[in-house]
User: Fold this.
Amino acid sequence: MGMRGSVRIPRVLVAKIGLDGHNRGAQVVGHGLRDAGMEVIYTGIRQTPRAVAKTAIEEDVDVIGVSSMVGAHLAIMKKLKKELEALNASDIPVILGGIIPEEDYGELRALGVGAIFPPGAEIKEMVQYINEMVYPERRFSPPPSKTGLRAVERVETEAWVPEVPESLTGRGPEELHLLGSRCDQCGQVYFPSRRNCPSCLDDHSIRQVPLSDHGTLQTFVVASVAPPNYSVPHAQGYIDLADDGPRIFSLLTDYEDGPGLKIGCKMGLKIVRLGRDKENRVIVGYRFRPLKDEPSGGKD
Amino acid sequence: MRETYILGVSMTRFGKFLEKSLKDLAYEPVWNVIRESNIDPHDIDIAFVGNAYAGLITGQESIRGQVMLREAGITRIPIINVENACTSGSTAFYLAHLAVASGQSELALALGVEKLFCDDTGKSLKALGTSSDMDIEGRMGILFAGIYSMRVRAHMERYGLTREQFAKVAVKNHDHGALNPHAQYRNRVTLEEVLNSRMIADPITLLMTCPMGDGGAAVLIGTKEMALRMGKRPVRVGSTVLGSFGFTRKEEPSIAARVSIKAYQEAGVFPRDIQVAEVHDAVSPVELFLYEELGFCRPGESGRMIDEGVTWLGGKLPVNTSGGLTAKGHPAGATGLAQVAEIVWQIRGEAGERQINPIPNIGLVENGGGNVAGETAVVAVHILIA
Assistant:
């Protein structure tokens, strides 16, 4: 996607093919992938291989995940492969989950199935697999760690939860971006991500988009009072995100050294860890801080 | 829809009344409006009760209206509980008007009561903070003085309003409050005192902010016949409009502007026809923005209005003759109805030492509450006409 601060969100087609009504697994996986920040398109049950192949192309997905529970996996995978080839789309990776006997793994791999997730497979394994496929460059890049430790494995699997629901997306607490929604009909961009466009009142044209990690300070306050459990001074502001992004409300940080805060000054995103929730997930929040002079810099 | 008229109006003094319960604060204004209106209280056929925070402060989360009216003896009829943050009282007024206008009711009671003081200030502040989206802005310690301060700074940057102009609004409202026996603060303050009082959220100082408060206010709304029978100058509800926040784009009119335009249209009047106004000066600079949003002047000209004394008692368009929220006090659920009471007293010539002369015929109330997505969550505008 080129621009710094922009990131592609993986799009996954979760598909049920043939006379197989066991949809619970597909739905659980679909929700899990969505919770991990992916865009999930679910076909519903009893689709034909051709319909699935066509949907995959129309929705421009990064991967097709087929769920099979009734033993027809070899037959449907053969047909799906044929349909994808016929539509000149055999480059779309296909993965498979469900009741798949191990003795069929070899034949499925030969048909081009990239990964197989049998009963007991965890969502995070699927998330990791898909992320590595969509962001191949990151797989080998060193972690952005100041300690010098190789933190990739830990970071990728560390469970996290955003302070503000639907506000962040990314692989783990060390590598997150603001998540918004854009309505393709009216062009309005919202933060945090939302289910429909309140202007068009329509949920067809809304899609999640990553937002810029910098912007300009529209207005701010450094208050000498704060609500219970917050420290003073209590600094808040509205930031107009770059690339025609929305205006977002944020706590401000790291403003005491350097040039300080001024209406119109450049601000950069800072992801902060705020403790852990009851399930021991890292709670991560977003803050904004003044940038020295480089308007596109997110890290220093 | 038929025309509706305001009968009796009443409020308690606003202030810190730790010993008074919600029922105590409801009793006095309810029975004042019943006696003043010259009606049979058995004829009240619906009641709307506005309150914002009693659930969090006193624990009376549910059926607050029924509990508050229990002691007053108003039972059996439909009692509808209304919560819309600091606009709860105005929302009760809006609904009482609709009930009579639609013909469903003949005589509707609007009551607003709030107890913000308790033995724990943190508890009160936390309760006030819930007037935001607790999933989003509320997660980041939203502070209303902070929200207002941000608006003030953006406005100063754009139009060059000064700290002195903001402070003058507080001086004016304290001057007015000194004349109002219902006001929480009846002391005058000087420009220097306002500017030098403790900084809360730059440029907002302590004396530019409204205090926490306890209090109650009530209004009876009925038909034209009832208003004539009452014997006082009839005051008609010209319009009452309620609106909510939108995902307003950067150059679109704000919620207060949107709601007031509709209110002017429905009442068939223009901003220049308004002769007295009560507006939501939760912090005094906001009163200046409201002059602009309500169409009393052009954007950026509100500073000149306060400098020229237009909105002081004796000026062409006195604003917040009651003392406004900053001097009269701001018990959230009662505020909207207390604003209506002030306009009605002015139109009836009953405003005592702070009476506008000549007596006005058309007044406006603006009341706001809460904050969502960077905009006031609820705004009500009522236009009252003699």
Notes: The interface with chain B takes residues 163-165, 167, 188, 190, 192, 198-199, 218-230, 234, 236-238, 240, 247, 249-251, 263, 285 of chain A (CB under 8 Å). Chain A has two domains: 11-134, 152-290. Residues 152-290 of chain A form one domain. Chain A has seven helices and 15 strands.
